[in-house]
Design brief:
The protein is mainly α. The chain has a domain at about 35-135: Cytochrome c-like domain (Cytochrome Bc1 Complex, Chain D, domain 2, Orthogonal Bundle). About 50% of the residues lie in helices and about 0% in strands. It has helices at about 1-20, 35-40, 50-60, 65, 75-80, 95-105, 120-135. The chain starts with a helix and ends in an 11-residue tail after the last helix.
Length: about 150
Amino acid sequence: MRTLTLVLSLLALFSCLGWTQETKPAPKTSYSPVPVTDARRPNPVKATPESIAVGKKIYGYDCAQCHGAVGDGKTDPGKKMKIPDLTDPSVLKERTDGELFYVIKNGRGEMPSEGDRVKPEEIWDLVNYVRFLGTKKAPAEEKPSQ
């Protein structure tokens, strides 16, 4: 009986000590890797001027506020989140279209997902536009003539 009382007392003591210790949250990882099958997924949409135009339109609605009008990431949220410069060809050089599709569809870190808001074909159009941003400096939004 004494042993049982001693064990219960020790358990109660350790429980109390555990409650008083401050626990630190696990470090937040920036993102999970893209699954291999998704990374290898080929882009079924050719990068035509029409596809790039559709991608640019979606980009303007959903991406430009953080990534910038030309994709350089030089916005207040972009600087805070350390968004890469999509106009730099080296940024996406090692990324497949499948990886870009996955990240756009599912989000990454603080970047929200497109999810089901747009059709898969439109996400591929957006991939084509993002690739276009890195091929040459995309023109800035036109300034009104005075």
